[in-house]
Design goal:
Length: about 400
């Protein structure tokens, strides 16, 4: 089945009629439908499917069962709420199409080739980015993971059981001994479109990034009868903190976003008692990230003192700086005509970054995104560039698995 046919197959799954965005929350029905589709496509290609107790899947093309190690590719099938079509699935479908192309070339890999689909890469349901690959590599304590809940208070293991899985959280041997991992991903930015005029790029590094929960506590009161000076309004403290975060990020050439807010009691005519807001912070260096987050926390605390409210901050996810394996990156960037693909850094986190941090040589291929928009229904890549990505991935797998 061609890449385009697979793309058309998967496109309707989890797509909102209203916005055109995707709702493929991990272990929810749409994401499970994507996982089942992936398993069928692997079976159609006689790829040997393996899975771990975290919900991760890896399918193997292993012509010679006696050869260990392997070259693994793949990405994730989950999306952020109302996300784009490409972030994640492009890497998984391109991997399937790359195997098809290698077989059309009558290529037989000496090393096994694996295709991975990691769960909860977005951290959009349980709050920890790259949850599946972190658990698999031992980068996340399974006890902590078992206590993670979603916005409805559903625990991770229960969500997995409800989806028909048998949760066994923790480090797994799914990718033990592999030679390297190469993830193809839509670019979440415009470097390729705006500056490189190239359909495909190679990853050099991932910025460190963190997610912190800010709990602002005030006093619920009547919106009409409470004088402005008598209020202890956590929404005000939150709002001033959001402004401070934006300013600090601009000053530092970094990124800071409050994209998710929960207000209690969330009533139009009541001063809130409680506001919870989640900060996504990113910076080019780990020191810069820590300094910016500390500054924002200090400013929130100072503002709380003025508003007669309280604030507490809990770091929920931290991803250190990732430098991809330079030798692997340059091997992958080298085109057959002797020229080199552009090598670009990304501010977006990826499973490849988690595997690199776990000591697996990792690399990324990026497919041009004309607008750079991502985590939005507007996310887009031209079909010709997606096809170029499949060829680049097939060439890379052929080079690495020979
Ligand atoms: O949020 C990120 O950086 C990635 O898209 N998961
Ligand atoms: Mn992604
Ligand atoms: Mn994403």
């Amino acid at each position: 089945m061609s890449f385009e046919q697979m793309w058309r197959d998967l496109a309707p799954v989890g797509r909102s009629q209203r916005s055109g965005g995707y709702h493929r929350s991990p272990f929810g029905s749409a994401e499970r439908e994507c996982a089942a589709w992936f398993e069928e496509e692997c079976a159609r290609r006689s790829l040997a499917l393996t899975r771990d107790g975290n919900g991760n899947l890896v399918a193997w093309w292993r012509p010679d069962a006696s050869v260990d190690g392997g070259v693994v590719t793949g990405s994730h099938l989950d999306s952020v709420a109302d996300g784009g079509a490409y972030d994640g699935p492009l890497g998984v479908l391109s991997a399937l199409a790359a195997v098809d192309l290698l077989r059309e070339r009558s290529f037989v890999p000496v090393k096994p080739i694996g295709i991975a689909a990691f769960v909860e890469e977005e951290g959009s349901r349980f709050g920890v980015a790259c949850l599946g690959s972190r658990l698999m590599t031992g980068a996340l304590d399974p006890q902590r993971a078992a206590e993670l809940t979603d916005g409805e208070g559903v625990f991770l293991p229960d969500a997995m059981s409800q989806a028909g899985l048998d949760p066994e959280l923790g480090r797994s041997d799914l990718l033990d001994g592999v030679d390297c991992f190469v993830e193809l991903h839509v670019e979440q930015g415009r470097e390729l479109a705006r500056h490189q005029d190239a359909p495909i790029g190679v990853g050099s590094a991932i910025w460190p990034h963190s997610r912190s929960r800010f709990d602002f506590t005030g006093e619920a009161n009547h919106a009409g009868t409470t004088g402005m000076e008598e209020r202890h309004d956590p929404m005000l403290t939150y709002a001033m903190t959001a402004l401070a975060a934006n300013k600090q990020a601009r000053l530092a050439g970094a990124r800071a976003t409050f994209g998710r807010v929960d207000v209690r009691p969330n009533a139009t005519n009541a001063v809130p008692s409680h506001v919870t807001a989640w900060l996504d912070a990113r910076s080019e260096t780990e020191g810069g990230l820590a300094a910016m987050t500390q500054d924002i926390t200090r400013m929130a605390t100072e503002r709380a003192a003025r508003d007669g409210t309280r604030v507490s901050v809990t770091e929920e996810s931290l991803s250190g700086a990732v430098r991809f394996d330079p030798e692997l990156a340059s091997r992958i960037a080298a085109r057959q005509d002797g020229t080199s693909r552009p090598v670009i850094a990304t501010m977006a986190g990826h499973d490849a970054g988690v595997l690199a941090a776990a000591g697996i040589p990792a690399a990324m291929l990026f497919v041009r995104n004309p607008t750079g928009v991502s985590h939005s229904p507007e996310e887009f890549a031209e079909m010709a560039d997606c096809q170029a990505g499949v060829v680049a991935l097939a060439d890379t797998l052929q080079r690495l698995a020979s």
